[in-house]
């Protein structure tokens, strides 16, 4: 017998450089900006001790620090045939160097490159928004042909095909049940926390979870036509839409660059012929104009304020993915909330129970919990949890457990046979008698009811409800003080939505909302209010989160929602929304203040330069001084 050889993998010489390559790929722009700034600082410090030829460090700072922005500016100009701020900054820095002010040009490049690197980090997050969604889409399905099952790709499924879906599997395509019954968790699509019973003839949605039944399904739609696929498309299309502020900035940049370059070109020649300036004075004034008119102060008026606000928010449990989102939040006039998992805790809890069994409450709860403990249904889990809180006794042994999908569970404890579930499981006369005897304990229709019966008699009732989060009411009250209208979007029926509205204080609600309905609702609200935010936690909320002016996700929510949202509430505290609104409005106020001051300073420096009162050193002091002032003003947001 031939001995099996052990093959050793030949070391890859490039493998040792992989970490460096990955580091440069992910953080190269920031590393280059910081390196350029460090070289500028070193050159300045060494110049103080009169080290010879130290100016040679400045060209190196220019090349390293400005590489990414220069490349971006050139590439964008070639594509759009439009000049941009990146090229203006590089030109201004070169102009400063041409008249001997290397350090000022290096500082301009450093500040602009650093802000650009940080902006890149905030925008890169959105590229991963679809990855979490795709993980929930099944890749294969069990196709049934001639009583034989074949594993095929989901993309090849055709309407009319029959597929087999086992318990614990995600449903691969929209369809109708041909055979079998089950309970389906549709939270990914509707947001409803309570699983839905499905029997022959009822429809199923792709991406939802089959819990406890084996069913044969007739496919009604191709994979790319399913509701799940539509969610992917909605997220993609909504993310491509740019915010109005972003569009305005892009238009302003093009106009500003053209004006500055045109003014510089005019200054290079016009004063010599019109006012008799010497060529040396004319060129000197043109270079001073190019330096003082560079948008360094304008960039600094925004970036430090944004970064400070984002840092403060992070310390307070508010993860903000970019300054544009925080700025947009300041303009929001209405906020829409998903219900399940956002305004509520997302799982049912027992709020009360009635015991007419003749046993004491602890024994009654223990026996019911013993039966429900054999079921994986969320309502059963809630009852077991409730019993554990109110009875320290160990659960008795239960036997003959039979789960009836969509209705409840049967089981035996000792010599007692129990039926636990919906009213449809109960004998009508026994249910009427129980209701008559317990009329004073009448339960609101918005609550979920689980009955207990034995020997043909209803002996108990559990009422369950998805509880409001502790922070919901306080959050709604704070938002109202800011003049923000609040709306609840939910897949629940009208009664449940009305009950939650009364309990939470939300201004209005829209019930029976599927994912596409939430997007339509956000669009209509945007038409009415102008700027609307959306708060959600699940995959069903991702299209609306992407469509809204600002999307906010709960930190414990679905990964897709976290990736799609612009702001994440890390501690699931809705009251942080009001704090984020306050922070955004303060940030917008400071940015407007800084921008006005920066533009006024540029106008002043341009005027005194044209009057020949401004020298290059004082021009740099005025320009960089205004930059430092707006930076310090923006840093005030570090304290909130």
TrEMBL record:
| Gene3D superfamilies noted in UniProt | Calcium-transporting ATPase, cytoplasmic domain N, Calcium-transporting ATPase, cytoplasmic transduction domain A, HAD superfamily/HAD-like
Question: Mainly resides where?
Answer: membrane
- What are the TM regions of this chain, as residue ranges? 30-49, 256-277, 283-312, 595-614
Q: Which SUPFAM superfamilies match?
A: Calcium ATPase, transduction domain A, Calcium ATPase, transmembrane domain M, HAD-like
P-type ATPase A domain location: 135-236
Localization, UniProt? Cell membrane; Membrane
Recorded topology in the membrane:
Multi-pass membrane protein
> Keywords assigned by UniProt?
ATP-binding, Cell membrane, Ion transport, Magnesium, Membrane, Metal-binding, Nucleotide-binding, Phosphoprotein, Translocase, Transmembrane, Transmembrane helix, Transport
The record's section on InterPro entries has:
ATPase_P-typ_cyto_dom_N, ATPase_P-typ_P_site, ATPase_P-typ_TM_dom_sf, ATPase_P-typ_transduc_dom_A_sf, ATPase_P-type_domA, Cation_Transport_ATPase, HAD-like_sf, HAD_sf
What's this protein's family per the entry? Belongs to the cation transport ATPase (P-type) (TC 3.A.3) family. Type IB subfamily.
Family matches, as NCBIfam families: ATPase-IB_hvy, ATPase_P-type
- The protein in question is named Heavy metal translocating P-type ATPase
